[in-house]
Amino acid sequence: MEYIVKTENLSKHFGQEKAVSGLEMKIPKGEIYGFLGPNGAGKTTTIRMLLGLMKPTSGRIEIFQNDLKQERLNILRRVGSLVESPSYYPHLTAKENLEALRKIVGVPKQRIDEVLEIVRLTAAGDKKVKGFSLGMKQRLGIAASLLNNPELLILDEPTNGLDPSGIIEIRNLIKSLPSECGMTVLISSHLLSEIDQMATTVGIVTKGKMIFQDSIEAMRMFAQQSVLLKVSESDKAWRTLLGRGMKAGLDNGIISLPEQSDENVAETVRGLVADGFSVYRVEEERRSLEDIFLQMTREEQAG
Amino acid sequence: MLTILKSEWFKLRKSNIIGILLVGPLIGLGAGIGADIAEAAGMMNEWYMLLIYMNLPYAVLFLPLVTGVLASLVCRYEHQAGGWKQLLALPVTRGKVFAAKYVLILLLVLFIQLFYLAAIVGAGLYKGVADPFPAAIIWKSILGGWVAAFPLVAMQLWMSVWFKSFAAPFAVNVVFTLPSILAMNSEKVGPYYPWAQPFAMMYPATENGDIFFIPWEQLMTVIGGFFLLFYLGGYFYFQRKAV
Ligand SMILES: Nc1ncnc2c1ncn2[C@@H]1O[C@H](COP(=O)(O)OP(=O)(O)OP(=O)(O)O)[C@@H](O)[C@H]1O
Ligand SMILES: [Mg+2]
Questions:
Q1: Is the pTM of this model over 0.90?
Q2: Which residue among A194, B45, B47, B170 sits deepest, i.e. has the most Cβ atoms within 10 Å of its Cβ?
C-alpha cells in the first residue's frame, strides 16, 4: 500500500516525560486519517515532528515516501498545515496575512481570494486579524493551510472554537478534499464524535502510544453489538437459554445476547414465547464509539 | 531567500516603522542645531565639528540601541501569535529565515544612516556652514557606522529570537551599550568593545590610508570577529529552537 505518511518507532521525550513513544503511524493515500487521543496524548507533539518543527528523540519519518530529514523542503512544498491554536500576524488584515505567506509559497495572487471564499471569510478579508473572533482566526488558519494546494493537509484540532454551523461547514469541506482535490488529510481531535463523522482511517493515541490504528469500520466492529431482551421471569428465561447451550448474560433483569444473526434472534424469541415467557422488548445495544474509546484508553492505563 | 526577504519586508512595512527610522537622525539634527561650532571656525572644517557634536548622542547611544529595537520588531510579530510555527512549516530553511531577518535589519540601519546624512546636511545648512563639504569623509563616517552595526545587529537578533518579550533583549542591549561611554575613553578597552565601534567608525579622522576610520586589523578582528561570533550564536540557537 502507498503510504503518504509513515513513521517508524517515532519518539519524543521531554526530560523524563515520554510525550510520544514508539509511534508507528501509517496514513494511506487519499484517506482522512483521524488522529484521536485525550488531552496531552501527544498529538500536537507528533504533528510538530511531522512538520520538522521539532526534532524527534528517535525514530524516522517518511512523507511521500521520502525521508523528512533529507527532503524537508520538497516535502513541505506539498504540505499544508495548521498546528494547535491558529497562527496569525495580528497587525495585518486577513488578506495581508495570506499575502505574507503567499510570497513564500509562490502561488498566484488570486489563490488568496479563493481560499478566503472556501472558508467564508471574504467579507472580513480587509479587517485586521487582531479583531477577529477565535472562530474567524481558525478559519483564516485553515485558509492558510490550503494556500499552496497541498497534497497532504495536516490539521490539528481544526474545529476548535468554531460554532456549530462552522463545524459542519469545515467538516463538509474536509470530507470533500480527498475526492475533489486528491488530498490526503490528517486531522487530530480529542472528540470521537468529530472523527467518527469525517475520518476513513483512525489512529488512537494515548500517553504517547498508538493503541489502535485501522479503518473506521474496523473500529466500529470493535463495538461488539449485542441484543437485549426484556422478558417476564427473566431469571428463569435466562436459565432456559443457558440450558439450550446459548451464551447469554443477565444484567438487571435484562437478558443480553452477544452478536447474533437475525435468524438466531428470531429463533430465540420464538423459543421463549413457546416456553410461555412474555417478550416485552427486543433491542440492539449499540455501544457508542465514545464507550469504545474510553474502554481502550482505560485498558491501556490499566495495563 | 529573496522571497523570504520580500515577505519579511511586507510584514514589517505594515507596522509603523518610519517613526523609528527617523528618531535617531532627528536627535542628531537637534544636537547639530544646538551645537556651538563657531569655536572651530578657522581651526578646522566646521563640518567636522558639526559631525562630532552630532555623533555623540547618535553613534554612542542611539545607533546601538536602535539595532535592538529593529531586531525586536522583526521578531515580535512572529512571537505574538504562533508566527514561528506557521512560518517554519513552510518550505523554508531556518538559516534563510534568520538571514532574511538579519539582512532586513541591516538595510533598515543603512536607511537610518542615510537619513542621518541628510540630518548632517540639514544642520549644516541651518547653521550656514560655509566650509566646503567633505563628502569623502562624511561618507566614510556614514558607511563606517553601518558596518560597525553588523555585530550588534547579529547579537540583538539572537536575543530577539530567543526572548518573547520586547523588554528582555532591550535590557541586554542597554546593559552593553551604556559601558561604551566609558570604553570609548579607554585606550585599552575601546578598540575591542563592540558597542563602542559605531562611535569609533563614525568619528572623522584625517586621511589615514585605511578604508574606514579605524585600523584595518581592528575592523577585521573586532567587528568581523564579533559579527561571526554573534551571528553563528544566533544561527545555531535558531536552528535548534523548538517552535
Ligand atoms: N515543549 C514542551 N516541553 C515539555 N513538555 C511538552 C512540550 N510540549 C508538549 N509537552 C508535553 O507532551 C505531552 C503531549 O502534549 P501534546 O501537546 O502533544 O498533547 P495533545 O495530544 O496535542 O493534547 P491536546 O488534546 O490537549 O492538544 C504533554 O504531557 C505535554 O505536557
Ligand atoms: Mg494538541
A1: no
A2: B47
